[in-house]
Amino acid sequence: MSTPSRPSHETAHETTSGEEEIAIFFSILTQKAEDEELLFVQVKQLQQTLSDEISSMVSALLGPLFRLQKIEIRRGSVEFWVYVAGGFTLISHYVHFVHSLELLAKQIQELLSSILSMFLGVRITGGWWTPVRPKPRRFAPFHQILQNPNLIILLMASYLILSHAFMLAVLVRILLKGFLATK
């Protein structure tokens, strides 16, 4: 049984500013090796129909901020990839969004099953993931900064030096003011 090969970042698709891409993938396996080519041709012929139906599913389940980016059909058994683009970075961990995404994957799997029902022994498995690289951070997270003991010592020493320099400057000013007032 082959597992879907994740596309490289070079095959990830361009999205508009602020959008990220999520991939929903399915591996379609048959019991007979000779059915794989027929299955591939069948899915390839229905690509536009599948695209139209999945596009309406995306907007119905995930909302108007999401759109179908592209569908890819690959050989190697048959791999079916659906790319959805949208601004899901901040909400990708919320239960409702994940539930909607899993429901979308299930409905696409059911759509594929109904279209491929003429092939006996077809098994469709799948999942989803984000093919884009994590965005680089400008600064390290605060908890990582605090784990560096040398940095903590440097911060404490800097604080002591600066606070004492400020207090010394205030003391010198008070003394100069008092000294000049007595003359």
Number of helices: 5
Strand order of the largest sheet: 2-3-1-4
How much is the average pLDDT?
Answer: 76
State the name of the first-level CATH class of the largest domain: Alpha Beta
Number of domains: 2
Shape: rod-shaped
CATH homology-level superfamily of the largest domain: EIF_2_alpha
- Number of DSSP-assigned strands: 4
Category by helix and strand content: alpha+beta
Q: Helix fraction?
A: 40-55%
CATH architecture of the largest domain: 2-Layer Sandwich
What is the fold's blueprint, element by element?
Elements: E1 20-29, H1 35-45, H2 47-62, E2 66-75, E3 78-86, H3 95-115, E4 123-129, H4 142-146, H5 149-182
Q: Which short descriptors sum up this protein?
A:
Alpha-Beta Plaits; alpha+beta; 183 residues; disordered N terminus; 2 domains; 4 strands; 4-stranded antiparallel sheet
Please provide a written account of the structure.
There is one protein chain. The protein has helices at 35-45, 47-62, 95-115, 142-146, 149-182, and strands at 20-29, 66-75, 78-86, 123-129. With 183 residues, it is an alpha+beta fold. The chain has two domains: 20-129, 2-Layer Sandwich (Alpha-Beta Plaits); 142-182. A four-stranded antiparallel sheet has the order 2-3-1-4. A hairpin with a 2-residue loop joins strand 2 (66-75) and strand 3 (78-86). It is rod-shaped, with a radius of gyration of 29 Å. The N and C termini lie far apart (97 Å). Mean pLDDT is 76; it is low at 1-14 and 135-139.
Characterize this entry briefly.
The protein is α+β, with helices and mostly antiparallel strands and 183 residues long.
